[in-house]
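Report of the visiting student (M.T.), summer placement. My assignment was to run the structure pipeline on a short list of targets and document each run. The first record concerns SecA DEAD-like N-terminal domain-containing protein.
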Amino acid sequence: AASLEERASKIRSLNYALCFLPDELQASFKFLIDELSKSVTDEEKALRRELNESLKSVDDDDHAIGKLGTLAQRYSKQNANELFETLRTEILKKMYIYRENVTSVLDRQDMQSAINIVKKILKYKESVGSHIPEVEAVYKNVRDLIIKNFLNCCDTLVKISTIEQTHIVEEAFHNMIICISFSTTFHEKNEHFLPEHVLENGSDSFLKMYEYLYQNSEKYRRAIDGLHIVELGEVLRIAKRWDGLLQKIKQCHLKHESIQVLVKNIMNVIPYTNMIAELQKKISYLRDQLDVELISNDTTKFENKREEFFGNLMKVVSTLKEIDSKLKDILPFKVEVDKVEDELKKKIQKLGDHLLAIASKGELSTHDSDQFRMFYNHLASLNKYAARIGFDVRQFLDSSDKRILDQVMSLSKEIRSSSSDVTKVAKLLTQMKFFAENLSMFDSKINAEIDEALKLYKQREGASVLMQLTMILEKTDIGARLMSEHSALSGEDWRKRREKMQNQDNLEYVLKELTGDDIVTDVLATCYQIFRAKYDDLVSRILAVFDQRKDNEPDLEVLITQTKALVAKVTRKPNTIIWDYSFKDKIPELLAYIFAVWTLKNTQHYNALRGIESARAYLLMPHVAQVLAIFRILGIGYKKYAKTSDDLINNLVEIGTGEGKSVVMAVTACVFALIGVDVNCSCYSEVLSTRDKNDFASVFKALGVEERIEYGTFNKLCENLLNERCNVREKVRDMIVNNRSAISVVGTNAYLRPKVLLIDEVDVFLSDKFYGGMYTPSVYLRDSSIKELLDTIWQNKTVRNSDSIKATSAYKTCAARFSNWTFILDEAIKDMIAALESFQSST
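After the run finished, the structure tokens were exported:
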């Protein structure tokens, strides 16, 4: 059939031809032509009406869009070019409007509206795309706009950490979900609306967003575990800001791989509400820690536990205050730190009241003093921290100090006013000593006041009255301690102890009681007699000159010079000391000189009684057992056949309790030091070792041998031997830190003097702990790679084999750093794994 345009053209031709027909034919033909023209016009009007109605309904009826395709196809077949052009023009107008609308809604981040428009465009593309190619171009243009917006949304998610306005990220995520959802339901020639590389970009942005939220969650875990409040505040604020986004992600049910992976991962992120709930539990736990009594059995018995307890207590208070100060704007509840502080202040006030009540008593019992010490020590420990809660603990300590010391001063004044009544003075001194012994925090002040009271008492009543006083004091234990610990009375203590040891100068008795291997008593007796005669002569001659002067100490310069002159040259080999008979014969005389120096260096109590007949009883003097013990140590008094050479042999000497083994060790050390030998005097106790060294320091200095005599513990002896030529720890540390497999050569030309070891408490030395044990020196290594390895192992507590740890980058870095020492790393890792297996968290 001809098209409308063709029919209209032919009708125009007929109308033209009509003019050439006879008049009688024109009328009949004109009627027919008019009928045909009317028919064509009516048909065209109908088609245009149909077209207009279809175009009007496309916005509301998607089926109308499909009908446009039918019309386009019909117009094409019928060559209805004018109608087709009208259809094309109107459709393209729609397309361009759609494109502008897409641009507009995307600018408003309204992705859903953009997708709805795309769906319309796709309908047009499916319907008329084959007839109107421009529709395809518009579609591609709009698709590119949406992809660009999608990528912008991806970029927004990646930059989540720098964006303050949360709705921007939430909208971006929402828009991406809309796009991905549409893309999964859209299929055209096996192609997704969003290309694969764009979807991959989306997956990457989801991962980056997740990593940011997860890292914040991990920071929260570290912050809450370590109660790092500043960091905790930061992570909580971030968690609160993005909690809405987190919930939207969790509620997303889109069946797309990238979304499903994100939703699964996001479950590892701790929600803000959970963080707050855990923090609230943590705060409750901290408050519970403060709901304790300030005094316990452990805090009373152990100072370190007391200090630790109060340190932790105040740390808890400080933590609560910091939480209240820095997290107030985040927490949905009150910490009530003021209430916590008030409760703690009440408990401290109660302790202070108890302390002052006891300090105010006129006389303290043993129980009272125990209670006083308990309250005082706890308050003294609290004083270091109480300022943090604005409480003045010092007031209680100062007030109790004054009340106790006032009582002591009152007793001291009473001593001065009761000089004629020795019994009363002894009682007052005992009361003062009770305070000193039972209130250790004041012992130095009280003992100083006792010394001052005794000094004034002695000056006013004379030295002889002290004998009467000590006769009363020695009847009680506390009196005996007064005598031994206070210089004004210790001279009397020395004298009385010498009186009690009736056989200390009885050579025959000591030799009879002496037991041991290969003893020649005649030789020992002869040597002792030589020693005693010389010693008595030296001391007598020097004291005779000293008594005529007013010096505080005798002049020992000549005596010391003579002592050094007696020392002969001794043959010294690396492991032995050999002395000939001429020097051995001089040992009794040399000991006499050394003991004379010792005696005359301790004349303080003799000085106070110079001129009195019994003054010499106040001198420190050696007794027979001490001298014979030294003879035996030095190889004197052995049967000749029992010794195969002149080498100095090892000796084990047992001396009874109180017979002065510290004197034996010190004088023996002087003999060896004078002949150029280094002496180590070793003991298990640092306290005892230091005490003995201080007791004889003046003698060592006078003889010029203090640099050759070393006092110390068994451990210190090992350390000295270990580091004799160099600091072994430093050398080993340097070798490991610099990853060397060999230590640098240490110079060995330095001369080392021969050594002698004198051991005190040899039974302790021979125990399993020391001689039977192993001394294992260690060195501390510090390196960033080691720390990283430790952190990695700690963060992976469930690891139970070394191979898993060796596979980590931290181990590989550390092993590369210390490639020559991996065996140490491997052993340390085994120890750490074993420790982790038994580890139990305290929280």
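Strands lie at 571-572, 577-578, 678-683, 709-713, 755-759. DSSP finds 38 helices and five strands in the chain. I thank the supervising group for their guidance throughout the placement.
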